[in-house]
Amino acid sequence: MALLEIQDLRVSFQTRDGVVHAVDGVSLAVDRGRTLGLVGESGSGKSVTALTVMGLTKHPNASIDGKILFDGGDLLQISPAELRRIRGKRVAMIFQDPLSSLHPLHKIGWQIEEAINAHEDVSGQVARRRALEALKEVGIPSASDRLDSYPHELSGGMRQRVMIAIALVLDPEILIADEPTTALDVTVQAQILDLIRVLQDERGTGVVLITHDLGVVAETADEVAVMYAGRIAERGPLESVLEAPEHPYTWGLLQSLPRLDAPRTERLHPISGQPPSLIRVPSGCAFHPRCPYAFGICPQVVPPLLVSQPGHEVACHLPVPTRRGIGREVASKEVSVG
Amino acid sequence: MTNTIRRTAPRMTAGLASVALAGIAVLGLGSGAAGAASHAAKRGGTITVLSAGDVDHIDPGEAYYSFTYEITYATQRTLLAYKPGSVNAVPDLAASMPKVSPDGRVLTVHIRKGVRFSPPVNRAVTSADVKYAIERGFDTSVANGYVGAYFGDLVGAPTSPTHRVPNISGIETPNATTIVFRLRHPSGVFVGALGMPITAPVPASYARPFDAETVSTYGLHQVATGPYMIKNNASGSINGIGYQPNKLIELVRNPNWNAKTSWRPANADEILFKEGFQDPTVMTRQILSGSADVNGDTPPPPAELRSLLSNSADKKQLVFTPTGGSRYIALNTRKAPFNKLAVREAVAYVLDRNAMRLTRGGPIDGRIATHFIDPSFKDKGFDQAGGLAFNPFPSANFNGNVAKAKQLMKKAGYKSGLYTGPQVTMVADNTPPGSNTAEVVAADMAKIGFKVKTISVTHTTMYTRFCNVPKSEPNICPNVGWLPDFHEPQTVLDVTFNGKNITSSNNSNWPLLNNPSINRAMDRAERIVNPNARYAAWGRIDQMVTRTAVAIPWLWEQYPTLFSSRVTPSTELWNGGSPDVTFMAVK
Amino acid sequence: MTLYIVRRLLWAVLMLLAVSALTFVIFYTLPSADPAALRAGRQATPELIAQIRHSLGLDRPVYDQFFIYMKNLVLHFNLGYSYQNNISVRAEIASRLPATLSLTAGAVFVWMLIGIPVGVLSAIKPRSLLDRVAMGASLVGISAPVYWLGLVALFLFASDIGRIRLFGGAGSYVSITHDPRAWFSSLILPWFVLAASFAAFYARMVRGNLLEVMGEDYIRTARAKGVSERRVIVRHGLRAALTPVVTIIGLDIGILLGGAVLTETVFNIPGIGRFAYDSIVNSDLPAIQGTVLFGAVFIVVANLIVDILYAFLDPRVRY
User: Fold this and answer.
1) Which of A13, A30, A85, A129 could form a disulfide with A20 if both were Cys (CB 3.0 to 4.6 A apart)?
2) What is residue A90's DSSP assignment?
3) Is B173 exposed, middle or buried (0-12, 13-18, 19+ CB in 10 A)?
4) Where does the pLDDT of residue C319 fall: very low under 50, low under 70, confident under 90, or very high at 90 and above?
């Protein structure tokens, strides 16, 4: 039984312009000690999925259906008080921009201690000691001084480490990382991803790593799920998906990655067209307006998510052999092994 | 300063009750009635007077404002003074009326015995104290505003202000209780001037150090001779104690006042003048509720007056008093086009005096004026000026006569009957009702083609920077008027229309009228000692001035005084209806 | 930080100098009453007026008068004497300061007590009935002229002329040392009238600030940590939303200490604001100068305190 299992989650928002179908039938699972990479463009629904797990999308205008099973309970059904006990303590989340995600007017130590005090009744001394420990664990130098620093006094990488410290100080079972490296320098990116992996190994935390960058996923994930327009396009074990991706969107993602070893004169290959409106989602397969391989049935029928290889599910109308063929070719060109 | 005319001490005839103003209830106070009634009144208690502004000067030698007089005459004993219902001065500090020599140039006054200064001076008042009081008025550190006009003709009086208190040889003190005034020319009005505050005694040795300062500080250390004194400390200073500028003036009993020497009853133990009440409606209601007793310087507004008059109980607490003066529109005769008589006459015809009076509340505010001596003067000039019948620029209902005005314009050379020259300027009050009056004037003048440019400024700016300064004076000063200093027609005509009184600054002859025959008539009339002849002369002068249309009178104003039901009313007819706190009593 | 304070104080002195000079210029260029003529009274001769002008020092060139004034001020702390009644301006301001202080302190207390909670509640439940009523009422509070509001308050609640006789009416102010109860009763209506527009403004401002802050990322983080919503609103939301409000409060206090003219006028409270108004009407230059300078000092000091305070409240701002 997976640690966290999302079953057929649907989240839509009533807005002035119409109903936004942010998440349209998403099912995911995360296991202990494993990393699920959730990939997609902005607007694909990945963040909304994550926030819904945390219970942070509840709103009079929001309509949420489905199940989010965690430790035998459905997070969508339990009381707000119970949910709050889980949030931050057993399921934690870190966000994209650590500068705006940390309170600018409170010291770092205070912000970590607050996370502790929200769930445990400990003395100030104990909380402070644990905050110090947390800073050390995420590799912050002069940790005891840093307890009294303010977020703006730290570099971007340091701030993200602090966020990780806050998220992990209570040893949660699940960590959701929403684009944790997008706002950071490339060199720092690697450090942060490394850190997450080290801590995960130490504690057995299940990690959901949300990103639009396939490169990041390739480094860290065990499983990959590709989302498009609020639906899962393709998911499966990392090797399987990277070796033979089977969804035209995934191919597009791979091909659009700029490569250091490509000739300078070679042009980039972005996916043609615009990301879809989530209010007026294209009929049938949401990707069909941008898909170079779209044919007859694509605009008419929503492709179901079906198993193609063991553990590898794809939602596409193209015949499997065709998909695999193209996929392998794309992979061989774009994915470097090693 | 809510009255647009700077109020000085006007005096009214005793026959007020007979002046029938339509629909107005008047509390008939005969000249003796107030005195008799209040001697039987209860003693004790505190009377509270509310005012918007402060006194003009707390020093009795500088005071020249009807509100200030409410305090001055309660604390100082002038040679002559006035009972509430009277406009005829009677001896107060003086033991009897002055004896005038046959040629009218020497006046002898004896002062009462037993009058003493309040603490800390304490000693008896002598004639030298009266002499010093008048002399200090000529010193620039005191700078009395009327001493030149009424006492300047004393032998030895300085012709320009002096830097120290002058010794005026024309004021002789042969003994401690006798004063002899010697004038250069006979005067009919000098006796009236002996009722002004400058004649209240000031102890020379005590006051000199204060008067030696650039601006005299005697006012802040003044002593009293009247039934009340401004509360002071042991060394005599009232500053911050009985006199808190713009906040409070507190009068307490003068321990050295001898009731047997005075006809003032002085019933209340304490009188508080609370200042700073800007809103006339709030003030009126406070008086009605009894939390205060009378208005000191602000009349109840027309809306409140109307509701008061419709209630029979409230009506009894309201007293209307003619101010004795008039409001008028002054036309600058030194500049075109108002240097032409026909044009001025046209303006006199076109103005709708009814509309102008409405801006101040309508008939409640008084009678529409047709010349300058007001009806309360009766046979002291009003009748002699032709009374109500003298109306050289008549129109139906006083609404103005546009046709006649146009006729006169044609006579002046404007073929169409409409003015065709450049625009004319007017400097007016920037707050109602003065601003509203000015608007009516401008609108009326437009009917005969005048384009009027209005400059709106504060009341004091209007006077001191524009209308009082001939060089800067505009074509029209619509918010002017004049009150008599005492009950003599000279006091409403001489300063205001005699060419010799035009000054380069602080001028009160706003039309800048300098008519040789009128000037001559006035100079002659000033010297007439015989009252009947004098009043006949001034009555004629009133007619002459009115016919020149240099100033167009439009209101003989009356002033409403509202008393709370906890006090017995008493108003000073001689002071435009101000309350007389020495005669009031707490019931 | 010390260097910063020193620098600001030097600038403050310079600014006060400029304010004094500007007051002089305005007084002499704009049409106002002639103080010498006012003092001389009616029928005074031109010679007399000239003498008075000389004795008041008004016939000297303007820069000369200014120099003398500044010399008196800086060397002797002497603010001159009123043209009207020869009272020491400094003494008069000192005697009126307690009234203005009373009025300001109470009004600040009232508007904070009303404005901030209303703003917070409106922000927590935006577009609710409470929010709409509060914001509507605040619009009235801001738009209603203070003088009118004062009159309405008097006609409704004044103990002498009101429909319901509750609180001290116009002119009932006494000093707190004289009679604390009467002092308090006389100030209730003025406090609420003066506070009305400020409370309204602050409610709207707090509402706006808090709404904006509650949409920030760090609020999301706080919730993600499992912090209770109340704590999120107070320790995270208000902490950030109220910081700019503190600076504005400081500035408003500084301005009000220079005198709330309209409130002091309609309720006849003998404060500095009223003194300033009376001085202007009477063209009393020394008194005008005194009150202007006084007000300027408060504003300058308030500015400085508020800036320093802000540095303590917001660690990102450092001097």
Assistant:
1) A13
2) T
3) middle
4) low
| Residues paired with residue A232 on neighbouring β-strands, in sequence order | A227
Q: Residue B31: CB partners within 8 Å, gap ≥ 6?
A: B14, B83, B85, B86, B88
Sign of CA dihedral C33, C37, C41, C46: negative
Q: Is C45–B58 a contact, with Cβ atoms under 8 angstroms apart? A: no
> Are residues B447 and B402 in contact, defined by beta-carbon separation less than 8 angstroms?
yes
CA distances in angstroms from A35 to A196, A307, C11, C190, listed in the order given: 10, 21, 60, 66
Q: What's the rounded Cα separation, in Å, for the pair A148 and B22? A: 86
A172 touches chain C (CB under 8 A): no
Element counts in chain B: helices (H) and strands (E): 17, 22
Q: Are B418 and B449 in contact (CB under 8 A)?
A: yes
Question: Mutate which of C125, C212, C225 to disrupt the A interface (most A C-beta within 10 Å)?
Answer: C225
What residue in C sits closest to B57 (Cα-Cα)?
C85
H helices of chain C, in order, are 2-29, 35-40, 46-55, 62-76, 89-124, 129-143, 146-157, 180-214, 217-224, 229-231, 239-257, 261-266, 272-281, 285-313
User: Which helix H or strand E contains B568, and what residues bound it?
Assistant: strand B567-568
Q: What is the pLDDT of residues B512-546, one digit of tens each?
A: 999 999 999 999 999 998 999 999 999 999 999 99
- The answer to whether residue C32 neighbours chain A at the CB level (below 8 Å) is no
CB-CB neighbors (< 8 A) of C220 in chain A: 56, 95, 101
CA-based nearest distance A73→chain C, Å: 18
**B492 phi and psi angles, rounded to 5 deg:** -105, 0
Stated as kind and residue range, the H or E segment containing B205 is helix B204-211
| pLDDT beneath 70, residues of chain B | 1-40
Would you call C224 and A97 a contact, using CB atoms and an 8 Å cutoff?
A: no
Chains with at least 3 CB pairs less than 8 angstroms from chain A:
C
Element (H, E) at A8: strand A4-15
List the beta bridge partners of residue B552. B329
Residue of C nearest to A114 (CA): C227
For residues C123 and C139, the answer to whether their CB atoms sit within 8 Å is no
Please tell me if residue A47 touches chain C, with a CB cutoff of 8 Å: no
Residue C2's SS3 state is helix
Tens digit of pLDDT for each residue in B410-459? 999 999 999 999 999 999 999 888 999 999 999 999 999 999 999 999 88
Between vectors from CA C182 to CA C179 and to CA C186, what angle results, nearest 5°?
135
Tell me if B217 and C86 make a contact (CB, 8 A cut-off). Answer: yes
Task: Determine contact, residues B8/C42, Cβ cutoff 8 Å.
Answer: yes
Q: Tell me, what amino acid is at B492?
A: V
Closest-CA distance, B4 to chain C, in angstroms, reads 14
B touches C, CB cut-off 8 Å, minimum 3 pairs: yes
Contact C225 A118 (CB under 8 A): yes
User: Looking at chain C, which residue has its C-alpha nearest residue A81?
Assistant: C228
Q: Do C43 and B505 touch (CB under 8 A)?
A: no
- pLDDT tens digit at each of 338 positions of chain A: 688 999 999 999 999 989 999 999 999 999 999 999 999 888 888 999 999 999 999 888 899 999 999 988 899 999 999 999 999 999 999 998 999 999 999 999 999 999 999 999 999 999 999 999 999 999 999 999 999 999 999 998 899 999 999 999 999 999 999 999 888 888 888 899 989 999 899 999 999 999 988 888 888 899 999 999 999 999 999 999 888 899 999 988 888 777 767 677 777 777 888 888 888 888 899 999 998 888 889 999 999 999 988 889 999 999 988 888 888 888 888 776 54
CB contact under 8 A, A93 and C217: no
